[in-house]
Amino acid sequence: MRLIAFTLAAFFVAGPAAAQNWQEYSYPDYSFRVAFPANPQIEITTYPIADNRSVEAHVYSVRQNNIVFKVTVAELANTGLNESAVIDHAIKTLSQGGEIKIDIPARVSRVYGRQLSIAGSDGSRSSVAVFYFKGRLYQIEGIALPDAKDAGSYVIRFQQSLVFTGGETNRSGDVDREPRRACRGGPEGTDRRSDRERQSDVREPVRDQPG
User: Fold this and answer.
1) What is the CA 84 to chain-centroid distance, rounded?
2) Is residue 210 in some structural domain?
3) What is the DSSP string of 8-54?
4) Is 167 domain-assigned?
5) Which of 41, 71, 122, 139 is 20 to 30 A distant from 47 in Cα terms?
């Protein structure tokens, strides 16, 4: 995981140590928690999906010092879309008008998705991860707007703070175990597990995430 963080930091301009007033916010109804630098605004809106349809979504966001920290949770359970279609559409939408600089597999505990760095045509830079889990799209974005100064450490910290709760997975059986082996110690995937989870599988010397 250190290699992934170093690669992302090379894309962003590294800033000073992040402020000490970050706080973790838990949303048990949606099975996740995440750290924000201030109390997030929560908005119920719609999220566009394939075939010109839209679904209900909750957006949790903070804008601070020309940096946007945002989590979108979109309800996709009854759309008939599979994981591949959901993730591909999300990536296409996120990168519209910009350029994907990094696109790698990601994993938070036992939930698998994609992690991206995107350079916007307006000069913005985004650190993003997308996951399809329990019939929902989870999209976390740390966006450094064109005028943002020393934003790198903040957007990466935010994107890396996402934790899924409950210990469930969006894979099953060997399909769950095999990608974890593929992530082993290398840049292919992001693994954020608790100390207990990591100790139960010594085959994977990966980055820990506080449980």
Assistant:
1) 16
2) no
3) HHHHSPP-SPPPTT-EEEEEGGGTEEEEESSPPEEEEEEEEEGGGEE
4) yes
5) 122
Count, residues in the chain? 211
Q: What CATH number is attached to the domain comprising 147?
A: 3.40.1000.10
Residues near 174 by beta carbon (within 8 Å), at least 6 away in sequence: none
36 bridge partner residues:
23
What pLDDT was estimated at residue 179? 52
Lowest mean pLDDT, pick from 1-15, 26-40, 42-56, 172-186: 1-15
Does residue 185 belong to any structural domain of this protein?
yes
Total number of domains in the chain: 1
Please report the sign of the dihedral spanned by the C-alpha atoms of residue 167, residue 81, residue 127, residue 36. Answer: negative
Q: Put the strands of the sheet holding 32-36 in their side by side order.
A: 23-27, 32-36, 163-164
Report the share of the chain in percent with pLDDT over 70. Answer: 72
Give the residue numbers spanning the domain of 100.
Answer: 2-199
Q: Are strands 32-36 and 23-27 parallel, antiparallel or unpaired?
A: antiparallel
What pLDDT, on a 0 to 100 scale, did the predictor assign at position 153?
A: 87
The owner of tokens 């600089």 is 101
**Where in 125-179 does DSSP place strands (E)?**
125-133, 136-144, 163-164
Q: Which residues of 156-188 are buried (b: 16+ CB within 10 A; e: fewer)?
A: bbbbbbbbbeeeebbbeeeeeeebbeebeeeee
- Overall pTM > 0.85: no
How far is Cα 42 from Cα 27, in angstroms, rounded to an integer? 11
Which residues are CB-neighbours of 152 under 8 A, at least 6 positions away? 8, 9, 11, 12, 13, 14, 15, 144
140 domain residue, yes or no: yes
